[in-house]
Amino acid sequence: MKIHIVGPVGCGKTRLAVALAQNFDIPHYELNAIMLKDDTGKLEQDSATAKAQLTKQLLSSSWIFESSVDELFDNYFSEADIIVVLDTPSYKNRWQIVSGFFKEKLNNVKNKIAYDNKFDKTFNDMKKQLQAEKEYRKVKRGNLIDQLMPFESKVIVYTSANIAFEDLVEHVLKDD
């Protein structure tokens, strides 16, 4: 099974991907970590290296990719069996960004994301995430809809990561 999960910052992509990966014993990859950009928008690793990594992962029989909405990942939608779009309400995303920042700062949770735990959020990082969420609502959401039109038969839209997990486990992935 090949699943690609997309959505804005703070919608629960990582949580859903990790839960599905554990439930179905499928490898999980965070595409944003592979093609990580620095503060200027420049890729931290060259695109040839990143594409080689992605191509290797695409060739495997099962995977879960998760990414924010980004033109860098257009080509990978065609490889997915299912494309999960988390279209959560903006207020939930913004709450998750802010509360997650403070939880991490207070050491109430450990943020286990694909940055080898080198990622220590600053207030500026939180502001960037809030700005990215706003940009998603204004521009990228519409672009995503256009990008997914050729693949509409394999697109499933959810308004919650929890609902997505329950539905995917109970109905969609049950027979695979």
From TrEMBL:
GO molecular function: ATP binding; ATP hydrolysis activity
Domain ATPase AAA-type core: 5-87
SUPFAM superfamilies, per the entry: P-loop containing nucleoside triphosphate hydrolases (SSF52540)
Superkingdom: Bacteria
Short name of one Pfam family: AAA
Stated name of the protein: AAA family ATPase
